[in-house]
Design a protein that fits this description.
Layout: H1 2-16, E1 26-32, E2 45-49, H2 51-57, H3 61-78, H4 84-100, E3 107-113, E4 128-136, E5 141-147, H5 156-169, E6 175-182
Parallel strand pairs: 5-6
Antiparallel strand pairs: 1-2, 1-6, 3-4, 4-5
Helix pairs in contact: 3-4
Length: 185
């Protein structure tokens, strides 16, 4: 129990430093290594990626940012939302419709993963929902995009949860990239 408390304390300190996802507009990416963790739940953080490394690992990141920007602009222009939460929900729905209409099994939005690697049941609590997933089979990389429309940002704890779920559900992985997407509009 003491080890867990120390680990959480360290996570809190690291999350508060500049190595966190931050509130920058656009894309902020971190890599997690599924191979070095003794257990998938302990998938370790490797570090922050620059734009060139992100382009090499997740080739559709520019497309994702363009979709998020376009949908955000459209929802904002419509004025058809009650509050910040409703605005964010409408952006998530619009992005999911746009991505899922492509019918690409390696590029999906709003998907559920069972945290233990089994078949996700939407009626069972505890599933992990991914905003958008890009599966780059050629390099055995999964890119998980988490879009944020307000001041909130992805925490390192949430990023670790996403990475651990991806490890369990895509056991062949060599790389996991977690990307926070902030609209630039």
């Amino acid at each position: 129990m003491r080890t867990l408390e120390l680990a959480l304390s360290l996570l809190a300190v690291l999350s508060a430093q500049d190595d966190g996802f931050g509130t920058v507009l656009g894309l902020t990416a971190h890599e997690f290594d599924p191979a070095t963790g003794a257990q998938p739940a302990l998938t370790p953080w490797v570090g922050k990626l620059n734009q060139q490394a992100l382009n090499g690992a997740c080739p559709r990141n520019g497309e994702v940012l363009a979709i998020v920007n376009d949908v955000t602009k459209s929802v904002r222009a419509s004025g058809n939302y009650r509050d910040a939460t409703d605005f964010g929900n409408r952006v998530h729905i619009g992005v999911a419709r746009r991505v899922n209409s492509q019918e690409d099994p390696d590029f999906k939005a709003e998907i559920l993963l069972d945290p233990m690697g089994g078949k996700a049941n939407p009626y069972k609590p505890g599933n992990v929902r991914l905003d958008l997933l890009e599966n780059v089979r050629a390099t055995q990389t999964v890119c998980v995009y988490d879009h944020k429309t307000g001041i909130a940002e992805i925490s390192m704890a949430r990023a670790m949860q996403l990475a651990a779920s991806a490890t369990r559900n895509y056991p062949y992985l060599k790389r996991i990239i977690i990307i926070q997407v902030k609209p630039q509009t």
